[in-house]
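Ticket #246: bound-state structure for phosphoenolpyruvate.
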Amino acid sequence: MRRSLIAANWKTHGSLEMVGDFVKGFASGIELRADVVLFPPAVYLSTLAGLTSEFVQVGLQDVGVAADGAHTGEIAASMVKDVGGSWVIVGHSERRLDQGESDELVAHKFASALAAGLSPIVCVGETLAQRESGDAFAVVCRQLMAVVDHCGAAALLNGAIAYEPLWAIGTGVTATPEQAGQMHASIRAQVAGLDESVAPALRIIYGGSVNPANAGSLFAQEDIDGALVGGASLQAASFAAIVAAV
Ligand code: PEP
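RESOLUTION: The complex was predicted; output attached.
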């Protein structure tokens, strides 16, 4: 019922050469059983969009709130669309931590993406300390509800949720399929409590050290609808193997 979504978050990695090599490597003979979205550094978005439009979608790792104006360094959602992007990530934990992005700012970014006709992936997730103190779901809920309060539950269907426990991002430690599956089920139940019609169709993807070896067991969980992949998305072969695990 839900089509899987596999996203590549390249963070601040890559070059023009890498963009070209990746597209050549990934495009060769791959059969897509999922929606595939690549999130390169912003400066490579336009080039990547031109190379990949036939078989995958592209997007930005973040987006500004304002539609335009005097906001040095910000990129408006309409500009992402203008160069061929169709997705954005909002609220990645690295931005929440490094740039101090609040739940409210993330919700406004989600809304600005929707207003421009883009699909936003909102990242939610707890720290290790929050998990160990039993607060993981409360934290995830608070982050999610900021978006729901601002945009409405139905708006989630125009994008996706990425559950990314911070202790699993870039650490090589993956949540077990059961840990991730439980959190995804809890998120879906929370959304069902708000709007029963939204929950069954909502895509909830997992992020945190996903690789070709663990992708299959994560995707086997009923409520895991794909992955947001960092490190293992930088090589076409390993990202293609994750896509093939769907
Ligand atoms: C991420 O950047 O969202 C991520 C999950 O990274 P990694 O796959 O490297 O843990």
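RESOLUTION NOTES: The longest helix spans residues 177-194.
TICKET STATUS: resolved
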